[in-house]
Design goal:
The complex is a heterodimer of chains A (about 110) and B (about 110). Chain A has no helices and eleven strands. Chain A is mostly beta strands. The chains are: A mainly beta (about 110), B mainly beta (about 110).
Amino acid sequence: EAGVTQFPSHSVIEKGQTVTLRCDPISGHDNLYWYRRVMGKEIKFLLHFVKESKQDESGMPNNRFLAERTGGTYSTLKVQPAELEDSGVYFCASSNAAEQFFGPGTRLTVL
Amino acid sequence: QKEVEQNSGPLSVPEGAIASLNCTYSDRVSQSFFWYRQYSGKSPELIMSIYSNGDKEDGRFTAQLNKASQYVSLLIRDSQPSDSATYLCARGEGTGRRALTFGSGTRLQVQP
C-alpha cells in the first residue's frame, strides 16, 4: 500500500510569489491533515479535512493560506503571497482512525 | 507553558542499553498519545500509540501513560545505533480523529 505522498519535495520562491503544495493521502483515508514545522520549532497543526469538508482550520495562520480538497481525494495548500516567515517544512498526514501517517513533507524556502 | 514538553537532548545511551524518553502535557482533556520517530530530513514515522493508563508493549518499544501525572514515556530496549533519531511525542484530544499537538522532540544517540 502506498503511503502519503507530497509534491514538490522542495520549493524555493521569492517573497510575494505564489506556491501550491500537493498531498495525496493513503487510499481510502477520509481524514487529511496539514502541519508545518518552521525552523527550530515544533510541528504545528494547520487544518483538517474530512473527505472534502474542512473539519478544523483553527491552525491556519492567516488568509494568505488556502487549502482545498476537491472530490475528497488529494489536497492542495496554496500560499499567496508568500512571506519570509512561511519558510519551513509542510507535512501532510492522513488517517482513518486516531493514528495519523505522515508524508515526506515539502520544504518551502521563501527568499 | 508548552502544551507538550520534551527534553530536547541529546540523550546518549550505549548500544544494548534501555533508552527512556519522557513527555509531559499540560491539559486534562488529552486522551490519545503517540510517539513518532523522525530521522533527519525524513517524515515522522508512527511507532506507538497509547490511550489508557499503564504500559503498552510492541517489540522493543514500551509506551507508558499516567494520566493523573500527565506523563507519557517511551522505553526502547536493546537500543541499536539505527534507533538514533529524534523522537516526537504528540497528544490528541479525545480518542477520535483530531489535530495532534507535538512536543519539540528528543534527540536520541545510541553509541556503538
